[in-house]
Structure formats: structure tokens, C-alpha cells
Amino acid sequence: MSKSFSELYQKQLLYCIQQAVDEDLSAAGDHTSKAIFPAEHQSKAKLIAKGIGVLAGVDFCKLALEQHAPNVTLTPLVTDGSLFSEGEILLSLKGDTRDILSLERILLNALQRMSGIATVTQGIQESISHTNCKVLDTRKTTPNFRIAEKWAVHIGGGVNHRMGLYDAIMLKDNHIDFCGGLQQALHQTKTYLDTLPIPIPVIVETRTMEDVICCLQHKWISRMLLDNMSPTALIEAVALIDKKLATEASGNITPDNCVAYAETGVDFISLGYITHSAPIIDLSLRAD
Which of 21, 61, 185, 287 has the most CB atoms lying inside 10 A of its own CB? Predict the structure, then answer.
């Protein structure tokens, strides 16, 4: 059985949560809640949707509570990846009042941001479902919250690109230009790859048909990124590649034009939009 996202990236998720807790509570904790409520005070709360969308972040919140508020119980009424409607109660919390209030903003920030990303991702994937193309995310993410945003893409039905610079090689325009050209960059990359004990994927950005022809000579390349090409040019490039390599279209792709790019026959479209421009879904935590 394959591991879940949270199992694969538990270390990164725990680090993300710890950073959020340190940022909001520091060493002193929540002075407001400690001033008003005794340590034994118990409360119940419910999360209410103020809009519609795809829920994401419930399991993130469970992990946060397990680590930092084990005396608070989260009961999901809607699961990650499910559609919800305005006014629907999505989950409930029960337990230590101080802990609920101390983590309220962290939980809401995660749920609202992740749900927004999952909603946009699912919408785009559904709009291109008549093709074989899949939606990819990028590294255009919020600092210190990338792992949660990529989890949201996964929940929304998208495919995660590399998580960072550490798990794949991706030759982009500046790498190629700084190196003196595509051929030289490919030569240097292959020399480096041969020194690695474990192979890693290699993605190469191409900007012209000449670049495409050059990459086709290197069978060790995992995927060709066709950058800032028009749909017409993409059709030509995909025909030239003829399934010898996986293909990805990138550059100024949005929900408004994604269908035209997906219909060119590429295997993937990558959109920074789904993480840097997805609007949040408004959610509210209220006493129950």
C-alpha cells in the first residue's frame, strides 16, 4: 500500500506546524485566554462554511492538535476533498478552552488557505477532464507554508511537482543561459547525475523547437517543459516529441486559458496560479 501524503511528508508538516505555533504563541503562550479561563475550563466549537468549495486541511488540523493540544478532540463532519456548501458545519472541536482559542487562528488559516487551493485545483482539473492532461503545481508558494499548499493541491486532484530543489533537477532558462547554452547545461547535468547513488528526475525547460530537438537526443531526461509556447506551437512540439518524453506546458497558464493548453496533447500543465492566486474560502469557528 502506498503511503499517504501526511506519511510521506510528516517531518515537513510537523516543522510547518511548529513554525506556526512559535510565530503565534512564542514562549509566553496566549495571554488573553490564560487571563480569562482557568486551566480546567472546557468548551465546544463548530466550524461553519461562509462560502462553497472543496474542503482541505482537516487532517492538517488533526496533526496540529495531536502535537500541541492533545486534550482537544476534532470530529470531522466533512472530509478532506469533499465539496461543502455555504452554512454547512464542517467539523467540531471539544476540549480545553485555552488550547482551542490558542490554536484557533492557526487552524483557520490552514483550512481557509488549503480549501481555496483545493477548490481552484479541482475546478481546473475538472475543466480539462476531457483530456489526459493533469494539473501540476509549482514552487510559487507561500514561504514556510509550501508543504501544506502542496497537500491542498493533492487533495484537490492535482499532481505535485518537485517539492523543492532537493528532489529533482530542473534546468530552467537562467541555468541554461548562465551555463552558456542548452548543450553545455545538459552535459554538466549528465556528468553530475552519474555521480549520484540514487537517480532523480530531470526536467528541462525548452523555449524553441531547436531546444526540443536537442533534448530528444538525451533519453535520460524525464520530462520536457515547453515554456511560454502558444497552443499552436505546443501542438507542433508535442507531435515532434511523439511521446518519447513526458511533456509539460508552462508559462502564463490560468483558469481562463487552461483548456486550450490541455487540448494540445501535453501530459501536464503547470500553474503557479493555483498556489499564489487562489482565493481563500471564508470559514468561521464559533462556540457551540
Answer: 61
